[in-house]
Write a structure and sequence with these properties.
Elements: H1 3-13, E1 18-21, E2 30-34, E3 38-43, E4 54-55, E5 58-69, H2 74-91, E6 102-103, E7 120-124, E8 135-137, E9 141-151, H3 153-162, H4 164-174
Parallel strand pairs: 5-9
Antiparallel strand pairs: 1-2, 2-3, 3-5, 4-5, 6-7, 7-9, 8-9
Helix pairs in contact: 3-4
């Protein structure tokens, strides 16, 4: 898929109007959707990056999205996803874009000098659709949606120490609002 095809696909995946943000050269395009009480941001051309995943002889690529309560500035969403794209691109496959992968320090620079306390990421199977994950099946590759959940330093340390399943259990037990990026 090229950029235009991806934008059309994702415009149909998320509710609301997809706003496309222009990108500086060598960066990643990002779209945002105002969901009322929440804001969503998604990559629009990250699937061009090979992060080393394949299935059945085909590349598996992803477009990555994240959600937070309204109040996080659109510019911070865009900056975060661009920083993530560059980080994964520079990792050349050593940091796969797949569920269960921790992404250390992705939010440090974008959220510096803000009241946002999340600094690290965790890729998860998207839960927003309550079942099947949107995907684009092409002859040479499969592109799927991947959700980035942002973590505080404490949550990240917990995941490193006890594992991601334990972190997820603790988050559920404690009733932590993952969309509150100032928690």
């Amino acid at each position: 898929m090229n950029f235009d095809e991806t934008a059309v696909w994702l415009d149909g995946v998320f509710p609301g109007e997809l706003t496309i943000h222009s990108a500086p050269a060598e960066s990643f395009r990002v779209g945002t959707v105002d969901l009322g009480d929440d804001m969503l941001a998604t990559t629009l051309d990250f699937a061009r990056v090979d992060t080393g995943l394949e299935a059945g002889g085909r590349d598996v690529r992803s477009e990555i999205f994240t959600v937070a309560h309204a109040g996080v500035g659109t510019d911070k969403f865009v900056e975060l996803l661009r920083a993530l794209g560059i980080l994964l691109y520079d990792a050349s496959g050593s940091l796969p874009a797949q569920p269960g992968q921790l992404v250390p320090a992705v939010g440090i620079e974008p959220f510096d000098d803000t009241d946002i306390t999340v600094r690290h990421g965790l890729f998860v199977v998207p839960y927003v659709w309550g079942g099947e994950v949107p995907q684009c099946d092409e002859p040479d590759r499969l592109t799927v949606m991947l959700q980035l959940v942002m973590l505080t330093q404490e949550e990240f340390d917990y995941a490193v120490t006890y594992g991601i399943p334990e972190l997820q259990s603790e988050i559920a037990r404690a009733g932590i609002d993952l969309l509150d990026w100032s928690r």
